[in-house]
Amino acid sequence: MSVTVRIPTPLRKITNGADKVSVSGSSISEVLEELEKEFSGFQARIYDENKQLRSFVNIYINGEDIRFLDGLDSNTKSGDEVSIVPAVAGGN
Length: 92
Fold this sequence. Notes:
Blueprint: E1 3-6, E2 20-23, H1 28-38, H2 42-46, E3 57-61, E4 64-65, E5 81-86
Parallel strand pairs: 1-5
Antiparallel strand pairs: 1-2, 3-4, 3-5
């Protein structure tokens, strides 16, 4: 089973510049484990010290926010697109 993961610009230095990568996994946590196996240091950028998703990192499966699904236990299936989106702050 392979899902496509869209990599945000700040994490592309870890993925050697790739904006999309394909990994296997039947849940978001498994997908993130596979990303760590392929790209060492990936999880350190998105997990806090308690291995919880950092508050400024949003993850979507086919456009659905995992916070409204089953979080890191949200199921993935072959052909799904997972987007990792860091929150943007700023303004005047």
